Amino acid sequence: MSSFDAYCELQGMLEGHIFCDEPMVRHTSFRVGGPADLFIECASVRDLNFSLDVIARHQLPWAVVGKGSNLLVSDEGFRGAVLVLGAQFKSFSLPDLTCSQNKLVAGGGVQLSTLVQAAFKNGLSGFEFAVGIPGTLGGAVFMNAGSSDVWIGSIVESLTVLRPGEGLVRYQGSELPWGYRCSGLPAGEVIVECVLRVTPGHVGMIRAGMEASLTRRKKTQPLTTPNAGSIFRNPEGDSAGRIIEGLGLKGYTHGGAQVSEVHANFIVNTGNATASDVVAIIMHIRRRVREEHGIELRPEIRFIGFET
Ligand SMILES: Cc1cc2nc3c(=O)[nH]c(=O)nc-3n(C[C@H](O)[C@H](O)[C@H](O)COP(=O)(O)OP(=O)(O)OC[C@H]3O[C@@H](n4cnc5c(N)ncnc54)[C@H](O)[C@@H]3O)c2cc1C
Predict the structure, then answer these.
(1) Residue 240 φ then ψ, to 5°
(2) Domain 91-219 falls under CATH 3.30.465.10
(3) With a 6 A CB cut-off, is 42 part of the ligand 1 pocket?
(4) Cα–Cα 20 to 30 A to 47, which of 11, 181, 206, 221?
């Protein structure tokens, strides 16, 4: 069984699109990564279900990807299928405040920035912390994205996933063991829709909250060079960026990748970085931190195509 057999079976059967050998450099904020054997843009739950069935039958590895803003894809790419959420997953509906209904319903493929702006324009508070976090709602919920003190998990009322082979399953937000950059969702489930709690707020106050988040972000993050956000999880009671900076590693370079001068827990692509360059820096940092502090830094970013 091969990706090509799966491609032949999927071709012409989807409302969305399917591509062979799709360069993942186009789908990651790092702007690195080799080709995925199959790249399937699922336009609907039906597409997603059908694709996952075919993938299972052909025993292909697969991964769901949002905006690729927390991902490193290997230079060799991925010998499997990458699934992204298309049209049906990109819509959302605002709460009907006339009946005190404070729930915003959004597809897993909606960009977080779209929700932040829609909430602001409609005087809804709850998303201020997310201003400037790139990515989709599905990716943000899976990663429990947020700042140091507010996570998206805290406003998730419920979410619907597609569990391969079983269909749509709903979780209450309160059932999940939300933690630091972790939703606790089992691997292999695709978030298709979320119900989020928002509260009516004063537009001026919401704007002030957003501006505060954005100002902090502009000061502390390299926003003009391709990167994938924080590389490492903060170790208990400390900050990975502080530790790495303390070792004098800001500006440390390997090929086209560099430890950001702005924030030491970011690696930036200075123009022609490869995934191998990024991995070399990750390994160097981990070794130095282990030797100097006895701390094992754990990656926050997710890896695709490094399985072998
Ligand atoms: C400049 C910059 C700043 C950032 N700042 C922050 C920050 O302040 N706080 C923060 O938390 N993060 C931050 N990030 C990291 C990243 O933006 C978030 O983790 C984001 O939520 C990832 O969303 P995505 O759609 O890009 O997911 P991807 O990177 O595509 O995927 C991340 C993970 O989520 C999984 N996933 C994606 N979609 C789904 C789905 N529908 N169902 C199930 N699993 C899914 C993927 O399989 C993968 O394991 C930053 C990144 C950048 C580049």
Answers:
(1) -60, -40
(2) yes
(3) no
(4) 181
Any ligand 1 atom below 6 A from CB of 227: yes
- Is residue 181 part of the annotated active site? The answer reads yes
Instruction: For residue 300, indicate whether it is catalytic.
Output: yes
Distance CA 141, CA 189 (A): 12
Query: Whole-model pTM above 0.85?
Result: yes
Does residue 74 have its Cβ closer than 6 Å to ligand 1? no
Q: To which residue do tokens 């790139």 refer?
A: 134
Q: Which atom of ligand 1 is nearest to the CA of 29?
A: 53
The ranges assigned to domains in the chain are 3-88, 91-219, 223-304
Please write the tens of the pLDDT for every residue from 213-257.
999 999 999 999 999 999 999 999 999 999 999 999 999 999 999
pLDDT in tens, 253-293: 999 999 999 999 999 999 999 999 999 999 999 999 999 99
CB atoms within 10 A of CB 138: 28
213 tagged catalytic: no
Taking CA atoms only, the protein residue closest to ligand 1 atom 47 is 64
- Considering the domain delimited by 223-304, tell me its CATH architecture: Alpha-Beta Complex (3.90)
For 3-88, give the CATH class.
Answer: alpha beta
- pLDDT per position as a tens digit, 5-17: 999 999 999 999 9
The DSSP 8-state label assigned to residue 83 in this structure reads E
